[in-house]
Amino acid sequence: MIKIQNIYYMLCYAFEVLKKESYEKLKDEKFENTADLFAAILALGVAEQVKKGIIKDYEIRNEETSFLRGKIDVSSSIKQQTMLRSKMVCVYDEFTENTYLNQILKTTMNLLIRNPDVETKQKQSLKILIPYFNRIDEIDPYKIQWSRLTYHRNNATYEMLLNICYLIINGLLMTEEKGTKKLAKYLDDQRMSRLFEKFVLNYYRKHYPELYPSSTIIKWHTDNGDTEFLPQMKTDITLTSKNKILIIDTKYYSKTMQINRLYNTKTIHSHNMYQIFTYVKNVDKTNSGNVSALLLYAKTDESIDLNKDYIIGGNRISVKTLDLNTDFSDIEKQLNEIVEELKL
Length: 344
Description:
Layout: H1 4-14, H2 34-52, E1 57-65, E2 71-72, H3 74-79, E3 88-96, H4 100-114, H5 120-129, H6 158-172, E4 173-175, E5 181-183, H7 189-207, E6 217-218, E7 233-234, E8 237-241, E9 244-251, E10 258-260, E11 265-267, H8 270-283, E12 291-299, E13 307-312, E14 315-323, H9 328-341
Parallel strand pairs: 9-12, 12-14
Antiparallel strand pairs: 1-3, 2-3, 4-5, 6-7, 8-9, 10-11, 13-14
């Protein structure tokens, strides 16, 4: 289990906007579960957006009408035989607040309000905001096309809010047999893995900009130069100092180690080690030994602590756990020690 407060801090690094004064009180509040935390964040964020004004945008409408509006959809009009009713199908742009972004916000807020696992305090905060969305439709959360979402200067304030909606719907939303929707108490491993990666990267960007933290593409170092059909190699985090490079691959699993049941032994996940070794050797083309790597596993409720260093083919490859179930000041210390120990 991860301390809920640490999920808030991780979100702060993932979404800088959460460090604003309006969200400051959240760091001192106690939350029972992740759903509760997200409900509080959403309530504060939507309240701030309501003060600024709910954003309107142009939405494409397609409707049957007796009056010409926009362009006639001839094909649809013929298929639906609208002429028999003295009507036609028209396609037009409407400047409205009933946009896809606002629909997702309203849908997510109502999911939280209806869920028994969310505390009354958070529900009341969301209920106060719902009337501002009276002219906005609810949609099926399972049919949201997240790839449709685009952000620009006019709706940039929505990006963090919609990312929280995504985590709630895809990371927490579960369906019971009777068709009712229930929220899990904690994010699933897949969503936590992405959040963990983004948190570590942005932590180093914030506190160690001189190491140029970034997620980089590694080119294959082949003898004949042919890289066709080879998969893309992309690091989670790359830190660079003078002539030294550290590649960090973050991992979040329910079980940190893989278990060989036949021999009752535990080992590091083999594909993780193969992957990071491949990264190192394709970056260190001259075998200088100046490229090192770290497999950084999130430690949750397991008792295992990993802190191993291996020298493989002249390169240092380390495996460590980052304890997420401790005070955040300890997490910061652990992240700082990674850089200090490797003497970048």
